[in-house]
Amino acid sequence: MERKNAWKNYDQEALNALEALSCRYRAFLDNGKTERECVKEAVALAEKNGYTNLADAVRAGRRLNPGDKVYSVCMDKSIMLFHLGAQPLEQGINIVGAHIDSPRIDIKQNPFYEDTDLAYADTHYYGGIKKYQWVARALALHGVVAKKDGTLVEIVIGENEDDPVLCVSDLLIHLAQEQMAKKAGEAVTGEGLDIILGGRPLEGEEKDAVKALMLRILSERYGIEEEDMLSAELEAVPAGKARDLGLDRSMILGYGHDDRVCAYAELEAMQLLPAVPQYTCCCLLADKEEIGSVGATGMRAHYFENAMAELVNLTCDQYSELVLRRALKNSRMLSCDVSAGYDPLYASAFEKKNAAILGRGVCYNKFTGSRGKSGSNDANAEFIGRLRRIMDDNAIAWQTAELGKVDVGGGGTIAYICALYGMEVIDSGVPVLSMHAPQEIINKADLYEAVKAYAAFLKDAK
User: Measured between alpha carbons, how far is 445 from 72 in angstroms, rounded to an integer?
Assistant: First the structure.
């Protein structure tokens, strides 16, 4: 059951559409290097396409009707787009859900210190990373600083060509015999990922003069004091733009494909829906997946359920908890998260005939987890059968996959959380090479097919 490379299916019109999509996606990656920035991009795109804020409808008590389009934001870190369909919510809705957080290095709340004429920021890495990949590379600082008076200062340092960048230093090879003898996971420690912020002393300052100059720069340029870091969310991410990869420009190299490639494919798919879809359609972009979907903006929180309750209240003559429960149970969902692309250089980690191959289309993982499907949502056969029909009826290039060999692979998604409502869920995504590295790789054809797949699912699933 080997799948054909999707590029073989494209005429010139499809190739032009693929390249235009890839260009828009690269811009989304460049402008959305944090979950907050992704939400801002999603809101702008939604409003451009006729969506209004659900909160405004709630405050006004405005009834929502088939064809209405609304969005709901949770703490500026998660967002849901709803396009109301002809069928009542009780019949369930069609959902495509992804996450918009990515592995990174977070700045601690009490971060600044000086050591031997260098100013540093103390850090705590976020998500699963190989720590040695984050040293000796240009980093940019993105995030917000919340001041006591309620002012929110947005920070982006290191993305413009004339900006300075930041860096974590590495030990020179000449002195690294002991370091090189360690296991890869121990060569660089978490506490060793402190970021260099400066190396010039403030004139006239005697104690911690380099740190003093760095603090003066922050104060003069951003109005930030050292104590303001107690209420800051600053993330160090790879600096620079996403780039076409390969002499044939068939791939994209960039930070955050996991899982912003699926998130962007969902946003594109929502634009392809008819004016009034049969069932209400939802694009769900969640935070905190990389650390277990916890917290107020993670999928384990109830903001999706709360938004659904508001929709029930604004579409029914009288609110009913039973209607809400039926709506959740009867829903159908693609949990859109990237899958491990087969890498010939690391073939021993994969079982090839059940691996996702770059360029062969969107992939479906019946289950994730490892070693007995631990922690996995295992999709039911009937749902997959209907999904096969939708994919083939719409001439979409697709494949099935698992995350590596049985006793090697692993990883989780938000699928098992949404499955708690009793809805039908399967993992679906784009194959990625170098997943969780500072620079990841996708194939443009897989992005193109993902958009087509998600749009077809939203329109046809029932």
Answer: 31
